[in-house]
Design brief:
The chain is α+β, with helices and mostly antiparallel strands. The chain is built from three helices and 13 strands.
Length: 231
């Protein structure tokens, strides 16, 4: 495997990747760019579009990490999307940046999950696994311990606190049906012997024994990269 080389902004130089790896990266980016089901960020129309007065925008991307999911072993990448906009002739340009973790769900549809730039650059500076660092941040836990169903995670805990609630079914994030012997809540939901079914059926059912903390994955704030209107 070729050694990944980074540029002055910590981006991975694509030329430093093997041909096979580079093709896999482009395939994922293109799938995310055009995916009908990825509605978090809208479509990405990469390229340059300026008029004869120098007004317009350019949308580009750079690669910041490549990895494998610890549990599924599927390929994951992290990219930065960068938009340059100039709205007036001879006006100053504005640059907007967002970062996304990109991969495929169990149904092979692509997802793009917005992640924090500080987490990425901190992991790069410390020589840590960047994909793993972002997954730890998303679920606010050691990802190795996480039992995940899409953006919802069950994390084993040795202690719980809060009001006791009778067991039964709870719908999480409008699409994850959580069943447990007992619940406890104190601003955080805990579930005993939980099982979870994804009602649209994209993700496989999960179940576990003991007490678990229920976590909805964090998403970073991100820009809408739709083509801007030029005055």
């Amino acid at each position: 495997m070729k050694t990944q080389k980074r540029g002055q902004y910590n981006e991975i130089n694509l030329i430093s990747l093997s041909d096979t790896c580079r093709k896999q990266v482009f395939k994922l980016v293109n799938a995310a760019k055009d995916a009908a089901k990825v509605d978090e960020h809208g479509g990405w129309d990469f390229g340059i579009d300026f008029d004869n007065k120098g007004r317009g925008s350019a949308l580009n991307w750079d690669l910041y990490a490549i990895g494998r999911d610890l549990h599924t072993r599927k390929m994951l990448i992290i990219i930065q999307i960068r938009q340059f906009i100039r709205r007036r002739k001879n006006g100053f340009g504005n640059v907007r940046k967002s970062y996304f973790l990109i991969g495929r769900n169990e149904d092979k549809m692509v997802f793009a999950h917005a992640v924090e730039s500080r987490v990425i650059h901190s992991a790069i500076s410390a020589g840590r696994d960047v994909v793993r660092a972002c997954q730890n941040w998303i679920f606010q836990a050691d990802y190795q311990k996480v039992i995940r169903q899409g953006d919802i995670a069950l994390v084993p805990v040795s202690r719980t606190s809060g009001e006791r609630i009778a067991g039964g079914d709870v719908l999480i994030s409008k699409s994850h049906l959580l069943t447990a012997t007992e619940f406890r809540a104190n601003g955080v939901l805990y579930a005993l012997n939980p099982s979870m079914k994804h009602t649209p059926g994209t993700h496989a059912p999960v179940s576990c024994t003991g007490w678990h903390k229920v976590i909805e994955g964090l998403r970073a704030a991100h820009w809408d990269f739709a083509t801007p209107t030029i005055d």
